[in-house]
């Protein structure tokens, strides 16, 4: 009986540790903006059509958080056939951690969007574009 309790306890510790890696966020995309690495992530590991929450994280070449100051981020898609050009602005807020931002965006449909990010602040100035597949 004691061995079953011990095994159950060890399994519980293992599962608990697995669930705490990185706050539950999975990378959606990683891009390079000058000397910085930018990671877009959320709990699902992807964006969907409709309202989305995400985390945006900036790190320098040594893997340390980088405060980039003011950020703009939007997702757009070119016009195709009868479908017009679409653009969805993200809303971003700072967090207690330098270089980490929380954001929301409402994507109009499932498809491949271009994330267009620009920043200017203590870590310099830059911009990067990368594709995001909304499921």
What can you see in these coordinates?
- With 135 residues, the protein is mainly beta.
- It has one helix spanning 2-18, and strands at 26-33, 36-42, 50-59, 70-77, 86-89, 91-94, 100-107, 111-121, 124-134.
- The radius of gyration is 19 Å and the shape is globular.
- Mean pLDDT is 86; it is low at 1-22.
Radius of gyration: 19 Å
Helix and strand run: HEEEEEEEEE
Between the first and last Cα atoms, what is the distance in angstroms?
47 Å
What's the shape?
A: globular
- Stretches with pLDDT under 50, minimum 5 residues: 1-22
Beta-strand percent range: over 45%
Short structural description:
The protein has one helix at about 1-20, and strands at about 25-35, 35-40, 50-60, 70-75, 85-90, 90-95, 100-105, 110-120, 125-135. With about 140 residues, it is mainly beta.
């Amino acid at each position: 009986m004691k061995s079953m309790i011990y095994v159950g306890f060890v399994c519980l510790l293992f599962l608990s540790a697995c669930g705490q890696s990185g706050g539950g966020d999975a990378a959606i995309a990683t891009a390079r903006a000058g000397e910085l690495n930018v990671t877009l992530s959320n709990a699902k590991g992807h964006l969907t059509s409709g309202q989305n929450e995400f985390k945006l994280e900036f790190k320098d070449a040594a893997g340390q958080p980088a405060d980039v100051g003011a950020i703009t981020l939007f997702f757009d898609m070119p016009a195709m056939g009868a479908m017009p050009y679409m653009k969805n602005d993200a809303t971003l807020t700072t967090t207690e951690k330098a270089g980490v931002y929380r954001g929301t965006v409402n994507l109009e449909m499932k498809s491949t969007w271009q994330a267009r990010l620009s920043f200017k602040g203590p870590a310099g100035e830059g911009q990067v574009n990368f594709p995001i597949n909304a499921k």
